[in-house]
Design brief:
The chain is α+β, with helices and mostly antiparallel strands. The chain is built from 22 helices and 25 strands. Strand 1 and strand 2 form a beta hairpin.
Amino acid sequence: MIKALFVRVLVFCLFLSSFTGCGTFNYNKALDSLPVFDWEGVSPELKKDSYLWTEKYIQSLLSAKLINFDFIEKPYEFIKRGEFVQLLNECMQYPDNTQEHPFQDLEKDDPRNQAITNCYHQGIIDEDAHFYADQYLSRATAAQWLIRAKGGDTLDQEARGIIEPLIFAQDGFKEVPRESRGYLTLCLKPQHQLMYYRWKSKSEFRFIEASMPITKAETAFSLYQLIHPPQEGGALHIIQAAHSINFFPGPDTSLDQQNLQSLVVAKVIGNKDEYQASFPNLIEQIPSIENGLWKIQDDGSMELSFRFRKDLFWSDGKPLTANDAVFWFYLCHHRAYPYKNPEITSMLSRAVAIDPYTVTIFWNQPYPHANYHINVLPKHFFDSLSNKQLSHPFLNDPNYYQPGKEAESSFRSLQYIQDEQLVQLMLNSAYAKEPLHAGPYILQAYDEENSVLSLIPNPHFHAGKALIASISLHLSETSEQLLQDIQENDFDLILNGLSLEKAKALETKKAETHAMIVVPGYSWEHIDLTTDHPHLADKRVRQALLLSIDREMLMQKYFSNLAPVAHSYLPPQHLSQEGISLEKYPFDPIKAGQLLDEAGWIINQDTQLREKDGSILSITLVSPMEPSIRLEIQEDIAQYWQKQQLKVQIQRLESKVFFEKTLPERKFTDPTAYLYAWDFKASSNLYTIVHSTMLPSPENQYLGQNYTAFNHSLVDELCMDHFRQIEKTRIMLKLGTIQEILSRELPSLPLYFHPRVLLADKRIEQFKPVSSPDPDTWNIAYWYWTAN
């Protein structure tokens, strides 16, 4: 019989203690007066910084004097079985047991003997002839002991009854020993959270590594969670900027939409975690060449199989199966679907449900991110709208649909027309604002007048019931409305839309309860130059424009140095940045002037403007009207350029006009510079931005985004090779080469990467903002309120 637990309350004394597990936070301020741990010996196979999240738990055990610094100075070290049991016994305060134990390899005078005896008679350790106290403890065995320590017979029997593991890691299915699957599954559920994952230095996935030894750092987390288990209940009030509500999936969803959708949507492959790693969510494994689920034929065509977990349900209790993935495939790749990606659709062939749990997607050609191209929609919901169903054609079959030069000249078969009508019926249904999904929360009500969504936990959520009992999400359409909503409403969390200045002011006002969090972002502020205009065709002119801007000063002035100066298109944390050699342009007005002179743009002493062949070097600097900080930066940049004797005009446009008309239709004749930001994804390949065929035009329906008219044969070749490659390391190397070329040619002037600024109540536990362009609510089922 496994007995009930005893607990000792630990002192949790770390600044910003609520925000746990996030590799993007800077703990230096918090740890100034605390012990410095040695992480130098972390295995090179693991991400070195991916253990830093454990430091708060280590400090807690040190404060409670459950461990000493000599023992934990190198937290990456593996812990021995005897050491773990000693700590477990101390934390749980088990009474000393005077009975015998069966372990023949333990001497009576062994200092670990009493703790092992206690834990054995508590039913935590299985009976065996040997205990092996000096061997390292595997993570699988640690999970077994932790579950038994927490829940006695009840949790032990629950673990034994679990056949299919529910572990959200790439090695979390077949690789997990059968006898450990239930224990690890329970350890990772929201209501327990007794263990966590691992990250490898050269992998895009995260792992559980069940058979590997557990470290001292991971042990500190497990024991803390054992003593201070997650708490259910409470309400969470979120405010965020958002321009619209839409629960249909799309390829270019904004961050505000992703934050909203991740509350109710269970993605087949989970959103990137705090270390930018991917993990299987509704499926057993993410397809790869290594696991055999990704097959490439001799002609370059591909087959990817996705095996869904069993016992998945929509929020109405209906089963979620492979047929829901097939339905998503044909709805979201139909040409009448507004949120499609035509570039991807042209590569796809068809999708087939092999059985209720397996869907295979067929591709016409290689695509490196094909193993992420999967989603689900509730087929039964949309079937109820009509007695007709979408057909399952080959997507690019000319007998089904064949595009013409103009939309009116495209061939549409009768089946295509019927499918098109069904797609429109589905899009116009209530689903866009009243979704049926399988995520952690259910949309209970939507107050459209006040833009407030009310959500409650989904009882059918596959990972386990979310801990926070209710969420209200207040959406603010404009920055002015956001500030008004913040003033008029209590809030626990502001997710996006805050400027650094406003966040600092709010943090000062709410210093006792809230903390400002600054997360590195993927939003790239830059200036696009019209390189097809003669004034800007010479790269020396473009280089001079960048050299004349003091970006370091701008970052200090507007962002307190929290926004990193950009030297390329993709941020420093992107995998393609490793080992590349970028051309950098520190502020150097003298060199800028020399380059302009070399390019033939000489200062006219009468006009004090640079001229060449009787033409003045002029430039129009255009930007959207928001945010206001951009307008101030625009003024500063104009002044820098004017100091180089350029004629500079400032133009500001409504955002809708700027992004929907001026940029895509390239509505300019003069030399023009466009100041705005790109929101990149971790999988961005730059193809639509720099490939010469991506110049927007009526022929491509203005879908191209090469607004600079950049044309470089090697960049074109490298971009196209991206679609032919599968091996991610080679892709990153070539993407790095593209960026090296762009840093020399400068069709766009990189300025900085926007920091993402959030404000959160310090008592929210397990809130882990991400440094990738993925939602900060990616793990919201695991959030909970702490007392302190």
